[in-house]
Design goal:
Shape: elongated
Order of helices and strands: EEHHEEEHHHEEEHEHEHHHHHHHH
Oligomer: single chain
Strand content: 15-25%
Structural class: alpha+beta
Radius of gyration: 33 Å
Helix content: 40-55%
Number of helices: 15
Distance between the termini: 54 Å
Largest sheet: 5 strands, mixed
Strand order of the largest sheet: 8-7-6-9-10
């Protein structure tokens, strides 16, 4: 709402007086958050905000209008505020209410005397792409007041991530009405991270947990799945499990879920495994034919089309044909259930007609290839 501006004259100069309400401005919390977390000249901004509080309560200096009844400026005193979790001394102006004979607190000063949780702020910054070694350049506030070393930030980052990790890996899972479970392994340096993502009946994807292991072996994966069950993962009415065909994952699913699990092998992985056996000149053609076969809407049509591709592969490379045979039925589970048209989705790099030779490096790199599954 617009405020009326009134002018008075003092010593020949026109001065604008803007009446202000007695309460703090509605965006005070926003400004305080900026001061604490983003503005590199934080101390100067703090002084400006404190001065703004004084003018709201006692008006401009040497001007009687525009102030609350009985409110007057009353020297200053030494105090302290928190920028992030760092306590910093500062000179604080004072206001006194003569009618009540008491000091009036400044809203900004009271708010800035509360330390905030720096660990969470650091976590968000690091996850947002800010290197811990560039922390001194981060607008956490004033460099001379926040001379935190990279090792200090790293310790705080570790504490924050450890806390978030516990929340993720220990939370209960009974509340999720899951219809599908996606299991896949990703390579990070020398380790393998096997992750489980649940799909709810409403289509929401939920990260259920992950395990760090050397390989996708049956023992580790089975232990991981049992932990999910102990945390409340329900599968008694059946669950569709999607994997990349790794034998360890396959065995673990059968061991833990038994007949309650319907396995759907990733068609993209199957197609790429077959192509790995073929020379470069045949890959684009076979890739298109396999993709077209898997896109058939019914089980019978897809099985028939894959049979034709298999016959051609026998003439080119028997190992490629054997790779197609291995676990073929599990790549058609959605077809067999009659829901491929609704749920099936083949990976497409560049839309219909994309050729394999467009990305030979991706085809040869198993880590990058897995990332696209």
């Amino acid at each position: 709402m617009a405020r009326k501006v009134r002018q008075i004259r003092r010593k020949g100069k026109a001065i604008s007086i803007v009446p202000v309400p007695s309460t703090a401005a509605p965006d005070l919390e926003t400004r305080i958050a900026l001061i604490q977390a983003l503005i590199p000249v934080a101390l100067e901004k703090v002084r400006e905000e404190l001065q703004a509080d004084v003018e709201r309560l006692a008006g401009e200096r040497y001007v009687r209008e525009g102030r609350l009844p009985g409110h007057v400026r009353w020297t200053s005193q030494r105090g302290s505020i928190y920028l992030a979790d760092q306590k910093i001394p500062i000179e604080v102006p004072r206001i006194r209410d003569r009618l009540r004979n008491q000091e009036v607190p400044l809203p900004t000063y009271e708010r800035l005397q509360e330390p905030r949780a720096l660990d969470t702020g650091l976590l968000h910054r690091v996850l947002g792409g800010l290197s811990t070694r560039e922390y001194a350049r981060c607008a956490e506030a004033v460099p001379e007041a926040f001379g935190l070393s990279a090792s200090t930030v790293s310790r705080r980052f570790k504490r924050a991530t450890a806390r978030k990790l516990r929340e993720l890996t220990e939370r209960r899972l009974e509340g999720y009405d899951l219809v599908a479970l996606l299991l896949d392994g990703k390579t990070f340096a020398e380790d393998e991270m096997v992750a489980a993502v649940g799909v709810t009946i409403t289509g929401e994807k939920v990260l259920l947990g992950f395990v760090q292991t050397a390989t996708e072996n049956r023992k580790v994966c089975a232990s991981f799945l049992r932990e999910l069950v102990e945390r409340g993962l329900r599968f008694d009415v059946g669950v569709l499990v999607v994997t990349d065909g790794a034998k360890g994952l396959h065995a673990a699913v059968r061991e833990v879920f038994g007949a309650a699990a319907l396995l759907q092998r990733c068609q993209w992985h199957k197609r790429e495994n077959v192509l790995d056996y073929l020379p470069e000149r045949h890959r684009a053609t076979v890739r298109r034919k396999l993709q077209a076969a898997y896109e058939q809407p019914t089980y019978e049509a897809a099985k028939r089309a894959l049979g034709k591709v298999r016959a051609e592969l026998l003439l080119l490379n028997a190992s490629a044909a054997a790779s197609l045979d291995e676990g073929l039925e599990e790549t058609l589970t959605l077809h067999r259930l009659g829901v491929f048209r609704e749920l099936g989705q083949l990976e497409r790099r560049a839309g219909p007609g994309a050729l394999e030779e467009d990305a030979p490096e991706e085809r040869r790199d198993p880590v990058r290839r897995d990332d696209r599954a």
